[in-house]
């Protein structure tokens, strides 16, 4: 009896243990991501040929305590390498793990290589060559705590590489994980099987191999043991011949009918090529179509098994939420009585199916923790009840009240919902035919999973009520920001949208930043600036994307000066001005720390707009800025540039901001709170969204 070890993806150990025992293995013992077992050589060959789950099959050569590099060298030297590596062959050593003595895997591999070379040189008088890329013999060493195991790789290329994959789509499912999904699903190898998002066809091809009783390793041209000194060629040829006969008979007898659907014709072409290479193309019917168009292809119930997209970025979730919600509706409507198995790294997405799983398994797709959920669609399944009904009703009511108003105002960007219901804590803004949904951070008293589930319900309900598809819904998470965090880049799409605000045309970017380039609540302030600007010299500091400058220019300003610290946003401001036909030397753009610029520049203005951040500690500023603490100092600087008879409009978004009236009076200024008149209809429920003041010289 020889000692062997089989590796596998985490979560498949018990399945692999059962499979190896069925292949004749004895003394089977599971461990993390692998199974140790014993058997004669034919058991290892059968495992290489027939295992649908193993990643590698290895012959164990040594296992010994290792406290320092001398233990490593001596332990490796005691292996009878001359019985495993033939004269003239190349080898390579792969080393994994570490302890206090061996912290570098390359060093560990080097010490074992030295031990092999020294022993063979002493026994044969030759020094074998190392070939790291394509060795004849590959040695695997694994160090765990103070114990080292050395094995000989019998597999060669990993066993999930069956040999049929000609092409693959994005993020293809490994073949041994696909086989595990099929086994965990309970599919009986004869019933109909549907994969509605089949990609390059891995799940269906693995199912076809099972149905045809074809060994998954039958198509592989080579295995690692073929160059090994202990290889029994006749034994292997007999086992391979037996598998060939079984595959031919099995394919002729196979009764399962498998159906693959995908909306990507290019990827479907890959799937057909792969199925043909595997020799199972007659068992699989591939059809182009989206999930929403999926029809039940079979008169008898069967299994629907798939690996739907997970979505690693928040921006991908709206489309995926819609996809999963639509799939759930399709299952209830057209696949009653069917078994369903879906794997995902996002339990929230699976929850969008709104089906109750019968069984859940923990699996790993590479390093990604996933869940495989098995469902049985009830024979009397009914359409799912509307999600988040209270929220949906409120949103529909808001839309009815605001859409007509917005058209009358000549605006196509406005807020539809702003945490109207505390349990649905988000803001929803319309930008023409797009929606931006901003999730507010939930209170610490609300469990994260519960807040997440509510948010996904909100997103799904929003798409249902508005009819806006997932690819036009943008998700963002809004927490309390510091400094210029709201301006930091989130993405690199560089997708621009031109929107209308009264008589102004403005550019917004819905994806790349937390804010879009347009503060919707400032709309009335910008309109008022446009009404006041005729014939005036206008200064806009902390200008962001210059939208206020655009309104002032369109209102007939004699000149405008736009100041911001960000080059990116100043360029955006210039593009906004050009879009509205406003250019020339009378419109100046200055990149500078606004406080420093106000302190060191000359120039007087009739109309000044200042909308500073609540707090900033940008590296480009000399000191931090707090609007409550420092607003009098800022207003003092601004007053130095305000002409007699001029007007300063001062805004900020700090909640509970208190104007220092006495400090203002000491500067010879007086302020009028105009906040209420600057709150647009779409922000009426949030009176603290901003503060706004008109400030003039007291003598006026």
UniProtKB/TrEMBL annotation:
<keyword id="KW-0698">rRNA processing</keyword>
<dbReference type="GO" id="GO:0003723">
    <property type="term" value="F:RNA binding"/>
</dbReference>
<feature type="domain" description="THUMP">
    <location>
        <begin position="43"/>
        <end position="154"/>
    </location>
</feature>
<dbReference type="Pfam" id="PF01170">
    <property type="entry name" value="UPF0020"/>
</dbReference>
<dbReference type="Pfam" id="PF10672">
    <property type="entry name" value="Methyltrans_SAM"/>
</dbReference>
<dbReference type="InterPro" id="IPR029063">
    <property type="entry name" value="SAM-dependent_MTases_sf"/>
</dbReference>
<dbReference type="GO" id="GO:0070043">
    <property type="term" value="F:rRNA (guanine-N7-)-methyltransferase activity"/>
</dbReference>
<dbReference type="InterPro" id="IPR000241">
    <property type="entry name" value="RlmKL-like_Mtase"/>
</dbReference>
<dbReference type="GO" id="GO:0005737">
    <property type="term" value="C:cytoplasm"/>
</dbReference>
<comment type="similarity">
    <text>Belongs to the methyltransferase superfamily. RlmKL family.</text>
</comment>
<keyword id="KW-0489">Methyltransferase</keyword>
<dbReference type="InterPro" id="IPR054170">
    <property type="entry name" value="RlmL_1st"/>
</dbReference>
<comment type="function">
    <text>Specifically methylates the guanine in position 2445 (m2G2445) and the guanine in position 2069 (m7G2069) of 23S rRNA.</text>
</comment>
<dbReference type="InterPro" id="IPR017244">
    <property type="entry name" value="23SrRNA_methyltr_KL"/>
</dbReference>
<dbReference type="GO" id="GO:0052915">
    <property type="term" value="F:23S rRNA (guanine(2445)-N(2))-methyltransferase activity"/>
</dbReference>
<dbReference type="Pfam" id="PF02926">
    <property type="entry name" value="THUMP"/>
</dbReference>
<protein>
    <recommendedName>
        <fullName>Ribosomal RNA large subunit methyltransferase K/L</fullName>
        <ecNumber>2.1.1.173</ecNumber>
        <ecNumber>2.1.1.264</ecNumber>
    </recommendedName>
</protein>
<dbReference type="InterPro" id="IPR053943">
    <property type="entry name" value="RlmKL-like_Mtase_CS"/>
</dbReference>
<dbReference type="Pfam" id="PF22020">
    <property type="entry name" value="RlmL_1st"/>
</dbReference>
<keyword id="KW-0808">Transferase</keyword>
<dbReference type="InterPro" id="IPR004114">
    <property type="entry name" value="THUMP_dom"/>
</dbReference>
<keyword id="KW-0963">Cytoplasm</keyword>
<keyword id="KW-0949">S-adenosyl-L-methionine</keyword>
<dbReference type="InterPro" id="IPR019614">
    <property type="entry name" value="SAM-dep_methyl-trfase"/>
</dbReference>
<keyword id="KW-0694">RNA-binding</keyword>
């Amino acid at each position: 009896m020889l000692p062997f070890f089989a590796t596998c993806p985490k979560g498949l150990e018990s399945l692999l243990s059962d499979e190896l025992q069925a292949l004749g293995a004895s003394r089977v013992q599971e461990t993390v991501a692998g199974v140790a077992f014993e058997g004669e050589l034919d058991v290892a060959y059968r495992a290489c040929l027939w295992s649908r789950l193993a990643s590698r099959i290895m012959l164990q050569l040594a296992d010994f305590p290792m406290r320092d590099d001398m233990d490593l060298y001596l332990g490796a030297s005691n292996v009878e390498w001359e019985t495993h590596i033939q004269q003239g062959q190349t080898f390579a050593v792969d080393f994994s793990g570490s302890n206090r003595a061996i912290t570098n895997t390359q060093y560990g591999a080097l010490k074992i290589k030295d031990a092999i070379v020294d022993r063979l040189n002493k026994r044969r008088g030759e020094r074998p060559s190392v070939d790291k890329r394509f060795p004849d013999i590959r040695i695997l060493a694994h160090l765990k705590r103070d114990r080292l195991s050395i094995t000989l790789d019998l597999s060669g290329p990993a066993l999930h590489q069956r040999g049929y994959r000609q092409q693959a789509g994005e993020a293809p499912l490994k073949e041994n994980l696909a086989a595990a999904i099929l086994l965990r699903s309970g599919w009986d190898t004869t019933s109909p099987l549907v994969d509605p998002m089949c990609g390059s066809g891995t799940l269906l091809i693995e199912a076809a191999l099972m149905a045809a009783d074809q060994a998954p390793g039958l198509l592989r041209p080579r295995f690692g043991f073929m160059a090994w000194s202990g290889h029994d060629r006749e034994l292997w040829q007999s086992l391979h011949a037996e598998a060939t006969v079984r595959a031919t008979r099995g394919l002729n007898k196979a009764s399962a009918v498998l159906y693959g659907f995908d909306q990507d014709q290019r990827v479907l072409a890959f799937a057909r090529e792969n199925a043909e290479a595997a020799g199972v193309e007659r068992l699989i019917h591939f059809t182009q179509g989206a999930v929403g168009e999926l029809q039940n292809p079979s008169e008898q119930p069967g299994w629907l098994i798939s690996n739907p997209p997970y979505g690693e970025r928040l921006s991908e979730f709206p489309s995926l939420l819609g996809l999963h919600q639509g799939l759930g509706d399709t299952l209830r409507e057209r696949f009653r009585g069917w078994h369903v198995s879906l794997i995902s790294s996002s339990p929230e997405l699976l929850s969008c199916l709104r089906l109750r799983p019968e069984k859940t398994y923990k699996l790993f797709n590479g390093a990604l923790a996933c869940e495989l959920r098995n469902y049985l669609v009830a024979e009397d399944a009914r359409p799912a009840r509307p999600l988040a009904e209270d929220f949906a009703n409120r949103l529909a009511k808001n839309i009815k009240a605001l859409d007509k108003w917005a058209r009358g105002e000549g605006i196509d960007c406005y807020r539809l919902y702003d945490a109207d219901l505390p349990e649905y804590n988000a803001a929803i803004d319309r930008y023409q035919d797009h929606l931006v949904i901003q999730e507010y951070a939930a209170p610490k008293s609300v469990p994260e999973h519960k807040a997440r589930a509510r948010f996904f319900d909100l997103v799904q309900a929003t798409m249902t009520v508005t009819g806006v598809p997932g690819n036009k819904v943008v998700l963002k998470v809004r927490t309390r920001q510091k400094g210029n965090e709201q301006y930091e880049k989130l993405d690199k799409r560089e997708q621009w949208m031109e929107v209308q605000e009264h008589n102004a045309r403005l550019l917004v970017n819905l994806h790349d930043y937390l804010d879009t380039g347009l503060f919707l609540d400032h709309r009335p302030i910008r309109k008022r600036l446009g009404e006041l600007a005729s014939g005036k010299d206008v200064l806009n500091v902390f200008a962001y994307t210059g939208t206020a400058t655009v309104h002032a220019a369109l209102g007939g300003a004699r000149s405008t000066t736009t100041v911001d610290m960000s080059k990116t946003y100043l360029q955006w401001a210039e593009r906004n001005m050009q879009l509205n036909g406003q250019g020339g030397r009378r419109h100046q753009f200055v990149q500078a720390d606004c406080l420093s610029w106000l302190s060191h520049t000359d120039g007087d203005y009739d109309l000044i707009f200042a909308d500073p951040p609540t707090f900033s500690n940008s590296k480009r500023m000399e000191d931090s800025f707090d609007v409550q603490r420092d607003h009098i100092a800022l207003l003092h600087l601004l007053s130095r540039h305000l002409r007699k008879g001029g007007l300063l409009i001062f805004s900020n978004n700090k909640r509970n901001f208190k104007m220092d009236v006495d400090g203002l009076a000491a500067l010879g200024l007086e302020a009028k709170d105009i906040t209420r008149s600057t709150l647009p209809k779409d922000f009426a429920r949030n009176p603290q969204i901003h503060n706004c003041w008109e400030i003039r010289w007291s003598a006026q």
